[in-house]
Write a structure and sequence with these properties.
Number of helices: 12
CATH architecture of the largest domain: Orthogonal Bundle
Number of strands: 0
CATH class of the largest domain: Mainly Alpha
Mean pLDDT: 96
Shape: elongated
Catalytic activity: 2'-deoxyribonucleotide-(2'-deoxyribose 5'-phosphate)-2'-deoxyribonucleotide-DNA = a 3'-end 2'-deoxyribonucleotide-(2,3-dehydro-2,3-deoxyribose 5'-phosphate)-DNA + a 5'-end 5'-phospho-2'-deoxyribonucleoside-DNA + H(+)
CATH superfamily of the largest domain: Hypothetical protein, domain 2
Order of helices and strands: HHHHHHHHHHHH
CATH topology of the largest domain: Endonuclease III, domain 1
Cofactor: [4Fe-4S] cluster
Distance between the termini: 23 Å
Organism: Acetivibrio saccincola
Keywords: 4Fe-4S, DNA damage, DNA repair, DNA-binding, Glycosidase, Hydrolase, Iron, Iron-sulfur, Lyase, Metal-binding
Radius of gyration: 19 Å
Protein name: Endonuclease III
Largest sheet: none
Low-confidence stretches: none
Length: about 220
């Protein structure tokens, strides 16, 4: 079965199993989502949501973050890890937003990628969820599942992104990215995938290789 056909079958199953799959970061506007995604690097969404509950009450817009005392901001986000670099990037990002984008988050990949600490993953999260512009988000779950299922043989996230773009319908890029995350968290876990209870086993290369062990 060709990859496009497999993806079609997988999407039908995912639409049933993870109908409500969505971004698990809490945000009310594009700026909050951008900053939350920056904070989520090497940190769980749950921890980020705990931190930002207070953070977004204290800093309400790009000007507040740009003018924040660096040490104070570092302390505010300390528990997300790598807080010094994250605080520096957030301040510089907001300075650029003010100078070049009237304090607003741009709605295109080119401008987002020019912001400090923003790679393709972060940019696609913002585009897909804040602006409804489809994008494939390759996080650790998407990378792991794409390789295990056999949708991509690459390990570089950008190459995986382009591989998935070729076989997943564009209108489903954002949704499919979320569904990979949900499936990775609940079934296809990093250390021990639960192949026995996997509904896409029939379409998964790794699952098929494990069939004799899970009968």
């Amino acid at each position: 079965m060709e990859k496009k056909e497999r993806v079609k079958k997988i999407m039908q199953i995912f639409d049933n199993d993870y109908e409500d799959a969505k971004c698990t970061l809490d945000y009310k506007n594009p700026l909050q989502l951008l900053i939350s995604t920056q904070l989520a690097a090497q940190c769980t969404d749950e921890r980020v949501n705990i931190v930002t509950e207070k953070l977004y009450k204290k800093y309400k817009n790009a000007h507040d973050f740009a003018n924040a005392d660096l040490k104070e901001l570092e302390n505010d986000i300390r528990s997300t890890g790598f807080f010094r670099n994250k605080a520096k990037n957030i301040k510089e990002t907001c300075r650029i937003l003010i100078e070049k984008h009237n304090g607003e988050v741009p709605d295109n990949l080119e401008d987002l990628l020019k912001l400090p600490g923003v790679g393709r993953k972060t940019a696609n999260v913002v585009l897909g969820n804040a602006f409804a512009i489809p994008g494939i988000v390759v996080d650790t779950h998407a990378k792991r599942l794409s390789n295990r299922i056999g949708l991509s043989c690459n390990t570089d996230p950008e190459k995986i992104e382009f591989d998935l773009m070729k076989i997943v319908p564009k209108e489903s890029w954002t949704k499919f990215s979320h569904q990979l995350v949900f499936h990775g968290r609940s079934v296809c876990k990093a250390r021990k995938p639960d192949c026995k209870n996997c509904n896409i086993l029939e379409y998964c290369n790794f699952g098929q290789s494990q069939k004799e062990n899970i009968q």
